[in-house]
Amino acid sequence: MASFASSATKIYCTNILSHDRFDHGKDEPYFGKVKINEKTKKNLDLKLVTNVASQLPVIVLPPDEVVKKEKKLAAWTSVRQERWEGELVVEGDLPLWLNGTYLRNGPGQWHIGNYNFRHLFDGYATLVRLHFENGRLIMGHRQIESDAYKAAKHNNKICCREFSEVPKPDNFISYIGDMAKLLSGAPLTDNANTGVVKLGDGRVVCLTETIKGSIVIDPNTLDTIGKFEFSDSLGGLIHSAHPIVTESEFWTLIPDLINPGYLVVRMEQGTNERNYIGRVSCRGGPAAGWVHSFPVTEHYIIVPEMPLRYCAQNLLKAEPTPLYKFEWHPHSKGFMHVMCKASGNIVASVEVPLFVTFHFINAYEEKDEDGRVSAVIADCCEHSADTTILDKLRLENLRSFNGEDVLPDARVGRFRIPLDGSPYGELEAALNPNEHGRGMDMCSFNPSYLGKKYRYAYACGAKRPCNFPNTLTKIDLFEKKAKNWYDEGAVPFEPFFVPRPGATEEDDGVVISMISDKNGEGYALILDGSTFEEIARAKFPYGFPYGLHGCWVPKK
Ligand SMILES: CC(=O)/C=C/C=C(C)/C=C/C1=C(C)CCCC1(C)C
Ligand SMILES: CC(/C=C/C=O)=C\C=C\C=O
Ligand SMILES: [Fe+2]
């Protein structure tokens, strides 16, 4: 708890109830070691709440009448203020072994000045920290100080190309200039709003799909430390938003937008240098397929070639197209490639049924009766080969649920990729999708089972009618059953599994999620990983915008 270190004597909680943003100056810190000037104190209606021996601030909840007015889901509303930190009141009992910090990232500010962004993925990154220590829960949140965010605030307009938003050129000359710069990647965003990972050497990095959007943060203070600079000369403008990160390595895919394919690269932990392992050339289409994520097994990297492909023309457009920077090429087919981690050789490349996925869950090697690896199994959250999910994630759609069931069907898509040279792979639902209401995304599993045969996955599912996944679901891939958690009218965020230290059962641990509830508020929710019953919850000072992905930083 470095942010509370040393001798804070007065701890304040802010109680800002409007959507005013609070930009505190460098000389005017307002949390941690608290030093707040009189003017700020007056403006913010600050309340001195505690001066406890442990130096932990206690939350001051907004008055009831304000809460009652705020009925809309916070999930799709910009975060209320730049930052906040305080202790939450826990209902239930947090396990005493749960010592560490859950960090989660996501797009939390969807406007600049009077301009409102259009797509969920456009928002400026909001990092949230849930710090668990001896049964207590301290929360913090803070905006990531990316160049894109700082420039937008400074100029009161979008200055970088985001997922769908593009800066409006001042005139034709500057438009031509921007186009010319695009090849260098200069106008691309570094708004690291997708995920956050802990590297083996302890550094914590926030990520998006642009390589320049790899930003190192301090997990205690949520300070933006600076860019994660790759020291190699591999280049590339974009990479997968979901690298595979273990204590010793970091794997990622760099799509080749000129000569369609993917570079498979590996970075040893403790370095900033990616090493080239191999290359997969695309088998179909005019461009590489979108690789938001990819799975690995113990010995192989699986490279998906999705028929939803990057599109150079759409990249250059000023207005979003129906599929944003992508295009659907069903005639180009879908493929799955398997590369040996050690040699970089491709050991299988098969055509598979058309598919649409953001998130692979896990993969493992299947052995025949002689113990030889005969196939690779790869699971993903598969959106029924239907690209309309991208449009459903427009904020206008998310904010306008009218009781109609408009969420496209999704399933746990299980690929079987034979390693015997057969040209085709299979794709089938791993369990009946009705088990989880035909909604399926934002998944996690026990990280000790990375690349190995596993039984349980946690994800967001659906209770219909809905316009967005609205349940938490525990999937049993052996029994082909799901157990679901639901709070009417609420939107739960990615359920993140944290194993109990020393556990021997795969589901022995807890699942952490954040909930945006129907009253416009929210709470942290801790479920037992095995029973999937609630263990504890803790109300937030206000509701939070939708989060994407998180990571666990255990106490040292
Ligand atoms: C939040 C999320 O899941 C995905 C974010 C994706 C982003 C920000 C993608 C940005 C891109 C550009 C700014 C230009 C190049 C293409 C692409 C990677 C889509
Ligand atoms: C939130 C989401 C899909 C939900 C639909 O079922 C996808 C997020 C993708 C990026 O991380
Ligand atoms: Fe993602």
Which percent bin holds the helix content? under 10%
Total domain units? 1
End-to-end gap: 11 Å
Q: In total, how many beta strands?
A: 36
**Outline type:** globular
Work out the strand percent. 35-45%
**SS content category:** mainly beta
- Spell out which ligands are present: the ligand CC(=O)/C=C/C=C(C)/C=C/C1=C(C)CCCC1(C)C, the ligand CC(/C=C/C=O)=C\C=C\C=O, fe (ii) ion
| Poorly predicted runs | 1-61
Report Rg. 23 Å
| Major sheet attributes | 6 strands, antiparallel
Q: Could you outline the blueprint of secondary structure elements for this entry?
A:
Layout: E1 11-13, H1 38-44, E2 47-50, H2 64-69, E3 83-88, E4 90-92, E5 100-109, E6 111-112, E7 115-116, E8 124-133, E9 136-143, H3 147-155, H4 172-182, E10 195-198, E11 204-207, E12 215-217, E13 224-227, E14 244-245, E15 249-256, E16 261-268, E17 274-281, E18 300-305, E19 308-310, H5 312-316, E20 326-328, E21 334-340, E22 346-352, E23 357-367, E24 373-382, H6 388-392, H7 395-398, E25 411-418, E26 426-429, E27 441-444, E28 456-461, E29 471-476, E30 481-486, E31 491-492, E32 496-499, E33 509-516, E34 522-528, E35 534-539, E36 550-554
Antiparallel strand pairs: 1-2, 3-9, 4-35, 5-8, 5-36, 6-7, 8-9, 10-11, 11-12, 12-13, 14-15, 15-16, 16-17, 18-21, 19-20, 21-22, 23-24, 24-25, 25-26, 27-28, 28-29, 29-30, 31-33, 32-33, 33-34, 34-35
Bound molecules: the ligand CC(=O)/C=C/C=C(C)/C=C/C1=C(C)CCCC1(C)C, the ligand CC(/C=C/C=O)=C\C=C\C=O and fe (ii) ion (FE2).
